[in-house]
Design a protein that fits this description.
The protein has two helices and 16 strands. By secondary structure, it is mostly beta strands. Strands 1, 9, 12, 13, 14, 15 and 16 form a seven-stranded antiparallel beta sheet that branches. Strands 2, 3, 4, 5, 6, 7 and 8 form a seven-stranded antiparallel beta sheet that branches.
Length: 284
């Protein structure tokens, strides 16, 4: 099992983005904004995003955050060392970026066919926990151009919506987080009683929050972790995955967040050349 991964420097924000199609003003520039309501909307069920950089960037992960993709969606990532190259240094081939629960892990009949950890829906569902995240992991490559093809023929909307593009290299500590990681579903809805005594709900928004303890950081990992805290603070979002590339896709989907650190607690030194720190990530 792979250790947790944190992508804290989003190279996609430094790229010039283009798209094969867009509906009205909903263009690729929205993929560089941390706003769920800002989307790239295709005119159909096929979309191609091209990212171009002025200098080479290290890329080991591509993620599309808050989408209306279903478990049958397909994604292909091709990366080129130079903008004019014809042969890619990476070709992921067609993958299933948000796959369904495998039948061998969950007995037939317990879960619907094609079901995964996401609640599918377009942008109007994302404030209440809807939307899917599509991710592809691979060995790091240095690139100046990247082409992302997305295909989702069975989306109920008839078009593809994507809210955020995350791409870059990630940090993974030598020792994984402690057992006892907490996944919290946050809901700002409030219950109240009417004059007749009925229990009503003022519906709010919902989001996820992950809390972990990094109890065995090596000196090198402590240095990298401190850099992440200093550079990102509470302001800049990171892509966090506790179970990357896990054989159970539902476990990875539930424990992958694009969010911000909600705590900046002390990094302690419990014993010689070993460091410890808590971390909480709250989804945007």
């Amino acid at each position: 099992m792979s250790n947790l991964r944190i992508l804290y420097d989003n190279a996609a924000d430094r790229a010039v983005l283009t798209a094969s199609s867009q509906a009205g003003a909903l263009g690729p520039a929205n993929l560089q904004r941390d706003s769920k309501s800002a989307v790239l909307r295709a005119t159909g069920t096929v979309q191609t995003i091209t990212a171009t950089w002025p200098t080479q960037e290290a890329i080991a992960c591509v993620a599309l955050i808050f989408t209306n993709l279903t478990s049958s969606a397909r994604m292909r990532v091709r990366a080129f060392a130079q903008p004019g190259d014809a042969v890619p240094v990476l070709d992921s081939a067609w993958t299933m970026p948000c796959p369904e629960a495998p039948l061998e892990s969950y007995p037939f009949g317990e879960l619907p066919l094609g079901w995964n950890a996401y609640r599918w829906g377009s942008v109007n569902s994302w404030a209440r926990g809807g939307g899917a995240d599509a991710v592809a992991w691979f060995a790091p490559v240095f690139v100046r151009r990247m082409v992302i093809d997305v295909f989702c023929p069975d989306t109920a909307d008839g078009y593809i919506e994507l809210s955020r593009l995350v791409a870059g290299n990630y940090w993974s500590p030598e020792y994984n987080a402690d057992y006892g990681a907490q996944l919290q579903l946050q809901d700002s809805s409030e219950d109240y009683r009417t004059a007749a005594g009925d229990l009503k709900t003022a519906v709010g928004t919902s989001s996820d929050k992950l809390s972990i303890q990094l109890a065995h950081l090596t000196p090198a990992d402590r240095a990298r972790f401190m850099r992440i805290l200093r550079e990102n603070g509470k302001e800049r979002a990171v892509l966090f995955s506790l179970y990357p590339e896990n054989p159970d896709p539902l476990l990875e989907q539930d424990h992958m967040l694009y969010g911000k650190a909600s705590n900046l607690d002390a990094v302690s030194a419990p014993y010689y050349e070993t460091y410890s720190a808590p971390l909480q990530i709250e989804g945007i």
